[in-house]
Amino acid sequence: MSRKRISLRQELPLLVWLVFVWGALWQNFSPGNLLFGALIAVLVARIFYLPPVELGGRFNVLRAVPFALIFLGKVVAASFQVLYLAVVRGPDVVSAIVAVPLRSHSDLLVTATGHVISLIPGSLVVEVDRSTSTLYIHGINVRNAEDAAKLRKEVRDTEAGLIRIMGTKDELSALTQEIAA
Amino acid sequence: MMQTVLTVTAVVLSLAAAGAIVRIGRGPSLLDRVLAADVLLAIFGAALCIDMAVNRHLNNLMLLVAISLIGFVGSVTVARFVAERREGARES
Amino acid sequence: MNPETLIDAVSAVFMVIGALMSLAAAIGLLRFPDLMSRMHAATKPQVLGLFLLLAALGLQMRTWWVWPVLLVAWLFQLLTVPVSAHMVGRAGYRTKHLHPELLSSDELEAVVQKAAQQAATHGVDDD
Chains contacting A with at least 3 CB pairs below 8 Å? Predict the structure, then answer.
């Protein structure tokens, strides 16, 4: 069985996350407990080997914080939109399935975009075409082509935000060129 | 004040649970029922959460996580099963 | 107003709104016409509802070390809810649980038909 060696740097986010979960579950963040958690995290990551997630190699915290706040606001908006639609529109609600081609071909970004899209107002991922990295999105309350275009722009904007946070350098430069053009 | 909150949330959650149970009973397809069962589990989770918040303990926290995991595993399994069964029907 | 009552009031509001979110999900389940729109109702209010209830719990406990575990519980839900919604939606689409008259456009249909034709001619096992 051939295993591609992964560097510690690539593994570090996973290990930090595992140690954080360990500390949270024990509800104890004392250094001794964290050290033992780190030991177990390394053991788990070595024994239960999974294919490494290919990270872009950069993470922009300054972009991530506003993105997270806007995301939280959108989650709130999504719930109230569903409440409004359920109470006011009810059975007459009209939806559409919209194909949205994404810029990035990295699995991580497509997955992250899909997750965020599923949680913000009025959209759910129905199908993913990995070869062309196209998301097929079910939008609620999409009555005409104009609404569909709005939904498509929303998805592309979300992806742009995620690329700015953790996309690779190539994707980022492609994005800035696209916006400048 | 906590007593009022408890009463209000109890009424609201009971109504919500009744709605989800009606959908489980009526749901035209299996997937509708699974979805409604998932919502019912989420309502149980909400009730556990409110109990913990009002009485200030954390005994049910792991139960809460377990319930949401059961909902997740259950709906994924059933969705998988439904999709598989149809593929099989097409081939035969 | 002293901080104790303020914290109590905030968490009381959070709890009531969180419970209302469950009711929103139930109303959506009952009133929406097809499986796909019911999925919207089942997923989105759940996430906000659990967030508000966990925040109320954290406020009521008044200790800092519960916040990480509450955050972990919420993040797990954030990761699992879209996955199960996607799986149910995909199965629903493939088993024709869709009512075409409720859709204003369907850009997936042509792709699926093409793939089905290809699978029929080549016998490709796609997943």
Answer: C
Per-residue pLDDT of A50-103, as tens digits, reads 776 666 667 778 888 888 899 889 888 888 888 888 888 777 778 888 888 888
* Burial of A12 (C-beta count, 10 Å sphere; 0-12/13-18/19+): exposed
Residues of chain C with Cβ-Cβ distance to B2 below 8 Å are 8, 12
Q: For residue B91, what pLDDT is reported?
A: 44
pLDDT score of B92: 38
| ipTM over the 0.90 cut-off | no
Average pLDDT over chain C, rounded to an integer: 81
Nearest by CB to residue B12, choosing from C19, C80, C94, is C19
Is A79 part of any domain? yes
Whether the pLDDT of residue A153 is over 50: the answer is yes
Q: Are strands A134-139 and A95-101 parallel, antiparallel or unpaired?
A: antiparallel
Predicted local distance difference test score (pLDDT) of residue B10: 92
Q: Spell out the domain ranges in chain C.
A: 3-99
Which domain does A143 fall in, by range?
A: 61-180
Nearest by CB to residue C87, choosing from B23, B64, B79, is B79
Domain count, chain A: 2
Distance CA B39, CA A47 (A): 36
Whether residue A2 lies inside any domain: the answer is no
Judged by CB atoms within 8 Å, which residues 23-52 of C form the interface with A? Answer: 24-25, 27-28, 31-34, 36-37, 39-41, 43-45, 47-49, 51
Ranges assigned E (strand) in chain C? 103-106
Q: Measure the CA angle with vertex A17, ends A71 and C60; round to 5°.
A: 65
pLDDT at residue B13, rounded to an integer: 92
Assigned domain for A3 exists:
no
Q: Do A79 and C37 touch (CB under 8 A)?
A: no
Shared-domain flag, residues A25 and A84: no
Q: Look at residues A125, A101, A99, A122 and name the one whose alpha carbon lies nearest to residue A112.
A: A125
**Chain B nearest-CA residue for C44:** B39
